[in-house]
Amino acid sequence: MAPIGGTPKTKKGILERLDAGEIVIGDGGFVIALEKRGYVKAGPWTPEAAVEHPEAVRQLHREFLRAGSNVLQTFTFYASEDKLENRGNYVAEKISGHKVNEAACKIAKEVAQEGDALVAGGISQTPSYLSGKKKAEVKAVFQKQLEIFIKNSVDFLIAEYFEHVEEAVWAVETLKESGLPVAVTLCIGPEGDMHGVPPGECAVQLVKAGASIVGVNCHFDPATCLKTVKLMKEGLTAANLKAHLMSQPLAFHTPDCGKQGFIDLPEFPFALEPRIVSRWDVHKYAREAYNLGIRYIGGCCGFEPYHIRAIAEELAPERGFLPLASEKHGSWGNELSMHTKPWVRARARKEYWENLLPASGRPYCPSLSKPDNWGVTKGDAELMQQKEATTDEQLKMLFEKQKLKSKTEFGLDSHQTVDAMKLRTILRFPFRKRMHGHLRQKKTNPSFTSTKVP
């Protein structure tokens, strides 16, 4: 099966593709990828790199396109004016939200013309909503971005990364005024949104608001996201409503997440690497998504171009072609047949990679973490928007709250302290004991191997 070549003279629209039963492959995660590369600041996660480092944004778009994406989202995540001036962020004042959104549109359109890709203008949840502002005020924030998307003739619109279905409905209503197709994804799990609205009911509200494509993105791993989309599908069926389904999950394993998703995990955002899904995990995700009836399949935070390529390769039989990036990647590792070492050549087969249980190489680390679960949501003082940077005093209060919460979890009084090393021992002793036994047997018997998960 040869990689696709050439560019159609006229591109079919998103609904034309989905209505025809075609598989649409989204792109991956921009803010996480560009933070690792030194172009995005963790914390605000805002996309001023579209202005400051357009070459970095352009290159990542190009890599996703080459990997198989046929939708390129404008790099406008968290590009609302209120987010760009929240908690000391300088972007609104020094660059402006208009320039960031304008630059992001131009870059995405430029790269999309290099292949059969559509451009989606994207908006996301706002500090205004979390601060309790009224519907008209929040919709006015969305409207500013929408005007730029219309001016730049994007192909369709995506409202993504919403924790509250109420705000997502407001976003869909605003975007629908453009006359363009609207997709919407919530960053929720099977428990529903932050106000407890179940996924099925969320989907119903979003379709009634005017969305043609509904689903989830971010916050949870592929398996959890598919469970959530399944609940959405069931809700739509029960309400006798129709919509195309969409999934763009994290590229991190998060079975231990709470309702807030991976941002509740203690590893977020700087120690998530041990949780990264493999390309073979993504093969499984793509197949399960397809079998569930999802036809818009992509990724969010952590999804690199090679993950998107895995989606395209898994679904190549249905699509009829491979992405250009497959020129350097064989089917299920068959390029390893060219390796010098014979034991590596022996891995050039699907059965090997499909059944491998990868080790982390971290013998004293737990397999799961305990989410923070602070439980704050819309209207809580700690989520209120403020233009000024977070003060040292505000940080000190948060540090103390975190310490107190940790002590409570381990049954300590407020005046007691716990040494970090002792805490690790408390958390990991059962694992350490099992691992010690494993290593002792290995030392006395070098040929000893264990198939048991410690």
From TrEMBL:
Binds 1 zinc ion per subunit. The keyword Transferase applies. Pathway: Amino-acid biosynthesis; L-methionine biosynthesis via de novo pathway; L-methionine from L-homocysteine (BhmT route): step 1/1. Residues 12-315 form the Hcy-binding domain. GO terms for cellular component: cytosol. Its cofactor is Zn(2+). GO terms for molecular function: betaine-homocysteine S-methyltransferase activity; zinc ion binding. It holds the Pfam family S-methyl_trans. The keyword Transferase applies. Keywords: Metal-binding, Methyltransferase, Transferase, Zinc. Zn(2+) binds at C218, C300, C301. GO terms for biological process: L-methionine salvage; methylation. PANTHER family: BETAINE--HOMOCYSTEINE S-METHYLTRANSFERASE 1 (PTHR46120), HCY-BINDING DOMAIN-CONTAINING PROTEIN (PTHR46120:SF1). This is Hcy-binding domain-containing protein. It comes from Varanus komodoensis.
